[in-house]
Each structure stands twice: as structure tokens, then as C-alpha cells.
Amino acid sequence: MEVMSPGTKNLQTYMINRLLVYMCREFRAAEKRHFLPCIRADELPSQFPYLSEAFLRKKLKEHANLQALSFCSRGSNGQWMWVKKRNFRIFSEDELRNMVKPEEVCAYESMQAGLYRLKHLGITETHPSAISSAMSRLPDDAITLAAASHIERELQITPWNLSSNFVACTQGKENIERLEISGVGDPSGRGLGFSYVRAAPKASMSSAVVKKKSAATRGGSTVTGTDADLRRLSMEAAREVH
């Protein structure tokens, strides 16, 4: 299973399911205490940072109504609350656990750890492709290029990039030789693990090298000092070659 990547549809789907699980559990807990099932509106954006406020409001309206209540189990006077609709069926615990599986939580938490590392390093990009294209436009300055190369390397070892590379190679989409196997992507840092960073593509031969190899190949099959091809000479003509 791949680690979730920032800004992807998989992440959005996961957050929607997690929102639904959160709502159902909060509503059920309130009903068990014989309180009005509601959730404070101001606490949801911090709980689900990857969903915009407009998108969050749109999804919540499917199952709850936004009201300013003077009484609620979790609110104070005049607090805006999302109150459960009468026709909304709270899913069972088994259904909720099937919506958000443990491995999905691990994939999400791994992404969070990767984002925290990038933030700690002061890197705002999340994918190496953006840096690769930018590097081609950078000035020919050693310090600038070294810094850009370091940023690119950090993006190559993010959890979502490494897991994506591994899945692509093990599921037959790409060849395993496309991975470095050893190097900076090794999580142990001392050769005890495997690096799933994509190996740099081999540089193609320059046209000059190709011409040289082609000339060398032609030279090996021609008669010295002539343009004749030794393989096309008759036996009599070949005997005359000194």
C-alpha cells in the first residue's frame, strides 16, 4: 500500500471518510448521554486541515444542520454547532472501522511525518519533479545548484515518493533495476536497508561518441588503405591484399 501523497484524491477521500467516522462517534456519544447530538463548528477545521472550509461545510450539510444554539452538550451560549439531521443514520462501529482501516491510518501518519520533516527543513514543495524542472532554469552557480540538488534529494526520500517507486517496480509497471537499492534512501543510514529512490537514467551517448563508434566499426571490416569491404572481396582479390 502506498503512503498518501499531499494534494491527491486518495488523501481527500480518506479525510472525508475520517470526517464521517468522527461525526458518527461524536453523535453516538452525545445520544448515549441523552444530549443533543452536535459538534462545535470551530473545532472541525483544525481536526481536518486538508479539507477546505467550503468543502468541509458542503460535506457536513449532507448529515447535519448548522445552528447557533444556546444549549448543547459541548457548547456554550450562542455557539455555532453542527446538529445531526433527523434522517441521518449513525453507522455501526464495524461499518466505521471498514471506512477507515488501520493501514490507511498508517499511510496517512507516514505522510504527516514526511511533511513535518520537509517543514522542519524549510521546504515547501512536496514532489521532486517540480524541483527538477526548476533546476534547469537556475543560474550556473555552484552554491545555488548544490542547494537545489539537496532539496531535490530530500523530496526523493519522502515516504510517498519511496512507496510509490516500490509499488511501481514490484507490481510490474517498471523494472526493479530502476531503483538505487543502496544509497540515501536507505532508512537505516548504514547499508542495512534498501533505497527505493529511482536510479538516475544513464546518460545517452553523444553524437560524437556515436560517430566514433560507428567509424571504428566500419574500419574493422574494410581493407586498409581502401574503401573495399573485406567480406565482399572474392578469394582471388583477397589474396592480392598485402
TrEMBL record:
Top-level taxon: Eukaryota
Coiled coil: none
Localization terms from the record: Nucleus
Record keywords, A-Z: Nucleus
Organism, as annotated: Prunus armeniaca (Apricot)
Ranges for domain Transcription initiation factor TFIID subunit 1 histone acetyltransferase: 1-215
Pfam family, one: DUF3591
Protein's name in the database: Transcription initiation factor TFIID subunit 1 histone acetyltransferase domain-containing protein
Predominant location: nucleus
GO molecular function: histone acetyltransferase activity; RNA polymerase II general transcription initiation factor activity; TBP-class protein binding
GO cellular component, one term: transcription factor TFIID complex
